[in-house]
Amino acid sequence: MTDEAAAPSRPRSYAKGVARRQEILDRAIEVFADKGAEGTSLRAIAEKIGVSHAALLHYFGSREELLLEVLRESEVRHGSSRDKQEVVGTMVRAAERNVGIPGFVSLYTSMLAGSLDADRQASREYFGTRFARIRERLAQLIRDGQHAGTFRRGVDPEAMAALVIAASDGLQIQWLLEPEVDIARSLELLERILEP
């Protein structure tokens, strides 16, 4: 077979690989949304989502890589529906959505806590970048609101952005421990701090 004859099959093979990886990722998201992944080995994850351990390793080099991809993919999926002009409202809607996927909230929380371990550099980078991006977006919205007169001028935008994120994540942890905690109601109190 000549190189010219073999070349057309490569794009198809690559496309199939990309599709298979996405299929595995989609299935993992479904499983983790319900049950989370705390303490689950890569082999057990493969079994839960219905693929071989070897296939999982082929597409995701480690458990951490798979779980981070699950977090990234979920953020992409849910990020498109966010109203980027709200400071607290975005977090309230995310919290309301997350009530229906406790396993995913548990996955996020355990991955965040694990990112503090020295050997979890990929997780540390993911969360550090994520928090920096969200803080900057929220701080800019606060500055814009202060300039427009819709937010109180004496509030430090960067500090308030960090507070909103901390409140959202902290309330979700409380909710995992005590499901009667009303995340949305508590987050809405932060809007009062921003009122002019």
Can you describe what's shown?
With 196 residues, this protein is mainly alpha-helical. It folds into two domains: 1-63, Homeodomain-like (Arc Repressor Mutant, subunit A, Orthogonal Bundle); 82-196, Tetracycline Repressor, domain 2. The chain is built from ten helices and no strands. α3 packs across α4 (53-59). The chain starts with a helix and ends with a helix.
Q: Which SSEs are present, and which pair or pack?
A:
Layout: H1 3-6, H2 9-35, H3 42-49, H4 53-59, H5 63-79, H6 88-98, H7 102-114, H8 121-148, H9 157-177, H10 183-194
* Count of DSSP-assigned helices: 10
> How would you spell out the order of helices and strands?
HHHHHHHHHH
Percent of sequence in beta strands: under 5%
Query: Level of helix content?
Result: over 70%
* Uncertain residue ranges: 1-6
What's the rounded overall pLDDT mean?
84
Query: Which radius of gyration do the C-alpha atoms yield?
Result: 20 Å
- The CATH class assignment of the largest domain is Mainly Alpha
Indicate the CATH topology of the largest domain.
Tetracycline Repressor, domain 2
CATH evolutionary superfamily of the largest domain:
Tetracycline Repressor, domain 2
| Number of separate strands | 0
Q: Estimate nothing, just give the exact number of structural domains.
A: 2
Keywords: DNA-binding, Repressor, Transcription, Transcription regulation
DNA-binding region: 41-60
Protein name: DNA-binding transcriptional regulator, AcrR family
GO molecular function, one term: DNA-binding transcription factor activity
